[in-house]
Design goal:
The chain is mostly helical. It is built from 2 helices and no strands. The longest helix has 43 residues.
């Protein structure tokens, strides 16, 4: 029983998976924040391009 518990304590594969999950979550938060901040500006740029193309008859 001691060997089983010692092996369980030394196993770090779960910790690695949790670390990767935390990194992925942080990246997602950064992407969401960036899109929320720049979303209106990007929409304005695409609207301007769309209007210019429509004026040229494209």
């Amino acid at each position: 029983m001691k060997k089983l518990f010692a092996r369980f304590v030394e196993d770090e594969s779960g910790a690695t998976a949790i670390e990767y999950g935390l990194i992925a979550g942080l990246i997602a938060v950064v992407i969401i924040g960036t899109v929320a901040t720049l979303g209106d500006d990007i929409d304005d740029v695409f609207s301007t391009i769309s209007s210019a193309l429509a004026a040229e008859g494209l």
